[in-house]
Amino acid sequence: MRPSLSEQLDYKGELIIIGREVRDIAEADALDYICSYSIFNDASNRGSQFKAQQWTPGTNFDDTGVFGPHFVMADELAPGCEGLRLSQAM
């Protein structure tokens, strides 16, 4: 839902990676720390974003971020989700 204070609400899909906290690992080992994947519909109120130096205030509105509804285990997909494509369903 578009917040009433905004004339434009932009959205984009994001791949969410669920894993465990790590630090200082080799890039080649990074996929070993991923447990599962899900998706998130990120919505941004551009009017609010451009009024602040930081973009965060334009992305935190009620009903603008939809997460899931499913988690897919990492071992069910190609490494790093290779070959998957996120697209808008019509």
Description:
There is one protein chain. The chain is mainly β and 90 residues long. The protein has one domain (9-81). It has one helix at residues 46-49, and strands spanning 9-19, 34-45, 65-67, 72-73. The longest helix has 4 residues, at 46-49.
Notable characteristics:
single chain, 90 residues, mainly beta, 4-stranded antiparallel β-sheet, 1 helix, 4% helix, 31% strand, elongated
Find the structural class using helix and strand composition. Answer: mainly beta
Q: Could you list the spans in which at least 5 consecutive residues all have pLDDT below 50?
A: none
N-to-C CA distance: 17 Å
Number of domains: 1
Rg calc: 16 Å
Q: Mean pLDDT across all residues, rounded?
A: 81
Number of helices: 1
Helix content: under 10%
Largest sheet: 4 strands, antiparallel
SSE blueprint and pairings:
Blueprint: E1 9-19, E2 34-45, H1 46-49, E3 65-67, E4 72-73
Antiparallel strand pairs: 1-2, 2-3, 2-4
Summarize the structure.
By secondary structure, the protein is mainly beta. It has one helix and four strands.
